[in-house]
Amino acid sequence: MRYIFTFIITLLLLPAACMVCYAQQHSVSGRVVDETGAPLVGATVALEATNFQATTQSDGTFQLVKIPPATYRLVISYQGRVNYSQSVDISGGDVQLDEIRLQPGQVALGEVVVSTQRRTQTSIEVPVTVSTLSGETLSRLNMRQMDEMSTFIPGMQVQLQSPNNPGYVIRGITSDDGDSRTQPRISIFQDGISISRSRASVVELFDIERVEVAKGPQGTLFGRGAQIGALHIIQHKAQDRFGAEVYGGYGAYNHRFVNGYINTPITAGKLANRLAFSYEGRDGFISNLSGGRLNGKEVIALRNSTRLWGGSNTTADLILNYQYDNYPGTSFKSRRFAPAGGDTDPTTSADLEQGEDLYIKRHVGGATLLVDHRLGNAWRLSSLSGFRAFDSNESFDADGTPAQLLWVSERAKGTQYSQELRLTYENNSRFSGFIGAGYFYENSSQQVPLRVDERALYPAYIAPILSAQLSGQLGQLGTSLGLPDAQVQALTQQVQQLFHTEPVIANGQPQLVENLPNLQPLALGLISQLVPGGLPLGITWQQLLQSGMLPPALPEELIALVTLLDGSPINRLHTESYTNYGRNQAVELFADGTFDLTDQLKLTAGLRGTYEAQRGGYRADAASPPSVFGMIANNGSPNLLNPVSNGTIYASKNYYSYVGRLALNYLFARNNVYASVSRGRRPGVISILPAETTYLKPEVVWSYEAGVKGLVANGKLGYELSAYYYDWYNFQTLSLQQVPGSIAPMLLADDAGKAHSFGIETGLRYFFTPTVNVFGNYAYIDGKFNDTDENGNPQEYAGNRFRLTPEHSFAIGLDADIPVNGRSSIYLRPSYAYQSGIYFEDSNREDLHQAGYGLANFTAGYRFLVNNIRYDIGAYGKNVFDTRYLIDAGNTGDTIGFPTYIGGSRSVIGAQVRITF
């Protein structure tokens, strides 16, 4: 009893004792900047001969807390800068240092600070392959779009058909499906918040702090959507100093852009605000003979970031983002039929009949609240709250011809909310890591209205279907009745002649068929041969139906078909629509940490468990009036392409899952050798249709990777080299599938079985001088489907390469900033990126293939400083040699045998000006 009493008294007195101890401890805080006053993020701040260490935050501030009273030596280091040190006496209380400026060192090659492992490290230290681009690099190379950025990240491609139709590819794996019922393989994050839903993921790159691309399964770090990688965009936050910039230019195709920011302290040391903006517009590269131009751009984006310092240990950032895209239509051009006076080249004039009624209009907005609270010198609690909503509306000509075969719209909209709490432990002890929990909710839909001129659809697609259907029925009937083969063949030839049509486009003009063929004379002639004595002269089909003289052997389907095909007018306009729905909820628990086995050898392990509830929905109402062709060729359906659902139908499924990683790395002299094994997972797919609901199994990948990266040659040469092997199970792909209720195949999620991928990536950057460097990267990817699945059965895509995946790709460039005097310089930044040939579909069809090509870009100009205001006057060029290439092929038109092709951006050269305060 005495021991229990002593224990209780000790517990009661412990907080008071701690308060006495803390009362005798103090803190050191300050701010680290470069020679211009800009904050240096990730500088190391330490007290010599102690375990007290910190890194500077995004505004350059740092704080060391709970330090016993004494005199210490404070040391600040940052790669490429001269180390700073001073004596600090905290015997008298907390110490607030003046602003500390670090001067440039001999070389300017800095280790990029990243937060990939959810704590502040340099890119060299993390035991995964992570490519980074600083905001300064994006600006220097004049990159404002995600596809432009991706060329400088080995193993990554971004296919930006439009802001409504992006495709992200990391190491051969594509994430581009707009269906609300499917989940991404590649996570797109903005300040720690997922923005991965396809139709809401494209953002303009302006006022960016840095971009990080972590490759390989990253579910432990970034959640269930990062099956094969994650792209993380970190935006600039408000800083406790005044600053502003405006940056604009004008070039070919009426290309114009302006962006900038203004950063304003509101209450010194407590509250600041940063407003950033971006506008870019460009006329379309493709002239549309039916009106307007295609493949243009117009977008405005706004961001407001407010930072609150809640004392020395707490920061809170409220970030509001909004983007409005108002693009002209996309040129989905056919290679089968040329426009009048033109050709079938996808990069030249098109004739899409809806003219200026083709467009993309997209609203995307979101709010993010980031709260970071230091619990001590080693512990930190972080909260990440995110809300996002999007509404996207696109109208496009899916067949790529002047005829209205498929005029399609897409209305995609959705909302999502996420909340994550994370507790991080980080100091000089042998362990650093984090634990946390998260919740994710998403509700989205995709509506696809379709408008068809059946007078054009008939010669293009319907006539061959009906001809084959009726020829087969009559052939079977004639054979069953014992008619001679010659007579049966003559009947089928008559049918084929009735359904023979001219091409739907001739000399660039639609060739419309106004009336259905009349089968009744053919049917009456056949029946007359089957009725003893023949039919009465002059009898009509309607009279025959009422007479009771029909031979009993005639199939009911044949009678109905003849009745419908009586030469009546074909519908001018048929409309129908379908909508898919997706609702996803997930609860996640995760932990990840690094244990120092020795000072140089480190072991990292992580695990994330997820419970997810998925619900998919489908709705397609019956068209009114119905399509005659649907009634004939679609088993009586009033619709052509969308199976009728009789209301909204839903299906649900819940999953428990896990992903994890294990990595070992060895650090030596700013170099890192690492190896890892990890498990990635893509959630299953609920493919719901009226006839059948298919539950695709979750896609699983095992990853094995090794690499080395670091700095050599006295820090002048930075390098990275990695090799990986991926093994997939239940590989999910998209394929054209024939389903009941549709006359054409539908593009649906499909299980392609087993697949594998082997790859090598490397990157180099060498500094000749502090202001002149060359850089380059190379990636090799051999991603293919296995010959057999896990059960040993042959696979449909056996040996095929993954879609949108070049076998070889590389990029090279020069970044030269040559001083003229102490306050001005001339700069030149040319670059060239190449990728080998790619297939646009996993089927590897040769007609859906792009041969290898390269693109050259540059920026050049003159920079000077006057009264602490920096001016930049220069020129820029994109695709300067006007290389012709495709960014997509196949698309919706392929479902009716009209694949379409989208040409890439043409050459744009212009002038630009930047002013920085």
UniProtKB/TrEMBL annotation:
Protein family: Belongs to the TonB-dependent receptor family.
Protein name: TonB-dependent Receptor Plug Domain
PANTHER family: FERRICHROME IRON RECEPTOR-RELATED (PTHR32552), TONB-DEPENDENT OUTER MEMBRANE RECEPTOR (PTHR32552:SF81)
Cellular location(s): Cell outer membrane
Segments forming domain TonB-dependent receptor-like beta-barrel: 576-879
Domain TonB-dependent receptor plug: 124-229
Membrane topology qualifier: Multi-pass membrane protein
One GO cellular component term noted in the UniProt record for this chain: cell outer membrane
GO BP annotations, alphabetical order: iron ion transport
Gene3D superfamilies: Carboxypeptidase-like, regulatory domain, TonB-dependent receptor, beta-barrel domain
A Pfam short name: TonB_dep_Rec_b-barrel
Keywords of this entry: Cell outer membrane, Ion transport, Iron, Iron transport, Membrane, Receptor, Signal, TonB box, Transmembrane, Transmembrane beta strand, Transport
Record's signal peptide: 1-23
Main location: membrane
Annotated PROSITE patterns: TONB_DEPENDENT_REC_3 (PS52016)
